[in-house]
Amino acid sequence: MTKIRPRRSIGTPLAPALLLTALALAGCAGADDQAGSEGATSTGDGTSSVSASSTSGGSSSGSSTSGSSTSAASTSTSSSTSAASETSSSTGDGTTSTTGGSACVEPPFDPDPLGPQAAMCVSDAECADGDSCFVVPLLGGLCGECKTDADCPSGGCTPPDALNGRGAVCNTGKPGGGCETDAACNSTCHNICAEVLDATPILVISTCSACQTSADCEPGWVCAPELDLANFTGINECVPPGSLALGASCSLAGDGADACASGICGDASIMGIIKVGVCSECASDADCAPGELCTDASVDPNDNTLIPGTCG
Description:
This protein is mainly β. Helices cover about 5% and strands about 25% of the residues.
């Protein structure tokens, strides 16, 4: 039995000009299975994080967080995978209870508050005892609790939010938490460390998710990203085919378009560096009626809205 929830729309602005400038410079420079018990009910909430490609005497990665998340303009539902059950009922509080089977209940993708302000640095020696310097290429370094998942025994490392001066912190491996490997993910339903956004060489965003591809989902379901572009993070969820509305985020890889009600996942880009998929009416003129032209999908830089490709 699968419990699904509606996606929420993103309402926070896109990252400040500093990160966009860094992205421009970079461009110039170069399912999980649930083994729940019978009659079980589970709930939870998660953290969001962004994994960054960073160096400070070596290479490290993790994630940075700030604000809440989710995919824009979607009226669809998302879910993690579960085994079939004989009967199910709603508890009225957003959870699903089952009898004679198991259920995987998706916690909301809701990040924890930002960490404290952190000192800028270029090496560990500049940080307080026990802290280390996490350097994000082109953005600088900040003192914090960790540089890699290995520094965090209970989960993964959430790297610094260089834009807001917040240091790296250890997370508990909740849904949406930053990670380097599956070992950092402690949620039964979101135990796959999956890439959700790629802004190499600055950021490679990987978080504890339900899937990396649709092969991680129940048969027939599709793996789709739920993005928080304001904070350059997100989470991958399994969704029913055809469930995502125009303007919802979708995967540009594999069968990602199958998640869209339109059957088309358009290609949008941020500063020509980060490519994201958007459920659209069209991806090319060939998808439109004779005489019509396709306006490509895009990302509104003012309010972070995903704009679907349309015919006209």
